[in-house]
Amino acid sequence: MIARLTTICVLTACAMSACAPRQSARAIREPLSITDVLRGTAADDAGYARAVDPRAFAFPADHGPHPDFRSEWWYFTGNLTSADGRRFGYHLTFFRNAVTPVEPAVEHASAWRTRQVWMAHFALADVAGGRVHASERFGRGALDLAGARAEPFRVWLDDWSVIAEPDGDGVSALRLRAATDDGVTLDLRLDGAKPLVLQGDAGLSRKSSTPGNASYYYSVPRFSAAGTITVGEGAIAVHGSGWFDREWSTSALDAGQVGWDWFALQLEDGAELMLYRIRRADGSSDPASEGTLITPDGGTRRLAHGEFSLAEERSWRSPRSGASYPVAWLVTVPSLGLRLRVTAALDDQELDLAFRYWEGAVDVHGSRADSPLGGVGYLEMTGYADAARAGG
């Protein structure tokens, strides 16, 4: 949900570096405001396609880029465990953003010329070590420096990549590779354990009541994961799970919306739960907030704003930004008999990159119809650092 930030981030980094092929997260020192960037105007959006009505999805083509829309992202998260029980969480996301709706006609155009800019985030949470290792890269969509394609599926920025394995079909088997600036690496194979799911209204995920403030959104909610990571000396064999989210859009937040809380939970009974709460300036949840329950057999049930509740139980204050993030939640879905406590595996999972947000591994403990139920997942929280900066 954060891809509209890409244009300002990448253009700033490029201006500072003459658009060298690789850019570190440290290229931008002062974090940007998420809410300021996400509030586009009619002038900003003119000429781009918009997500207004449900559409017919086509695969594998929709795994690839949608350049008529301003922005899109390929988003991977998951939880990993080593043979000796050491816990890790990972987050790897690629963002594409267009800087103009059409390619201007010029004579003798440079091979570096492109209207697409890219940003990627990679973070590995070492729970036992009490630290998140995170880096960010920027690139042009030219000269094969960054891009995406559908067949065979590939998305990349420099040497960070997600590539379809030869023995897979579409995105059913993937290889993820990335490395932070401080030498932490990820080399992971994901094998799809659940079918693809269209989120929202047949894949149209509305973010407000304003037509077009929406995205096209689908997920693969569960992969099995195996591979190696490097933290400190030597490679560590790990296994665990993965989640893949795909969205593309042109506009997102409406006036009065200040951020969101997004949950992707993989439950021990084979079900998954995706919920997001869009927060308004007055502290309320926007009626556009919603979710999806994915049953063990891959069926779905859409959950409207009034069908679930997210109650904050404990907060953690960042010593860097001063933002106070809820890191323990009570999630209830009365119609499903779900009562789940979602807690951060590590409180400090704030990413201090070109903009600040909290993205991290969580544990789930609770019940369904009075039967114990646990799980793991990922939680994203945005807008809190903006509120701290504004003195809220």
Your description of this structure?
The protein has helices at residues 6-17, 34-38, 42-45, 384-389; strands spanning 71-82, 87-98, 116-126, 131-140, 146-149, 154-157, 160-164, 173-179, 185-192, 197-198, 204-206, 214-230, 235-249, 257-267, 272-280, 290-294, 300-303, 309-317, 324-333, 338-344, 350-352, 356-368, 371-381. The protein is mainly β. It has one domain (3-389): Beta Barrel (AttH-like fold), CATH 2.40.370. The strands form 2 sheets. Strands 1, 2, 3, 4, 5, 6, 7, 8, 9, 10, 11, 12 and 13 form a 13-stranded antiparallel sheet that branches. Strands 14, 15, 16, 17, 18, 19, 20, 21, 22 and 23 form a 10-stranded antiparallel sheet that branches.
Assigned CATH architecture: Beta Barrel
Total number of strands:
23
What's the end-to-end separation, in Å? 23 Å
Low-confidence stretches: 1-29
What would the average pLDDT be, to the nearest integer? 88
Number of structural units classed as domains: 1
**Portion of residues within helices:** under 10%
**What structural class do you assign from the helix and strand content?**
mainly beta
Which word captures the global form? globular
The CATH topology annotation reads as: AttH-like fold
Biggest sheet details? 13 strands, antiparallel
SSE order in H/E notation?
A: HHHEEEEEEEEEEEEEEEEEEEEEEEH
**Measured on Cα atoms, how large is the radius of gyration?**
20 Å
Compute the number of helices: 4
CATH class: Mainly Beta
Structure in a nutshell:
By secondary structure, the chain is mainly beta. It has helices at 6-17, 34-38, 42-45, 384-389; strands at residues 71-82, 87-98, 116-126, 131-140, 146-149, 154-157, 160-164, 173-179, 185-192, 197-198, 204-206, 214-230, 235-249, 257-267, 272-280, 290-294, 300-303, 309-317, 324-333, 338-344, 350-352, 356-368, 371-381.
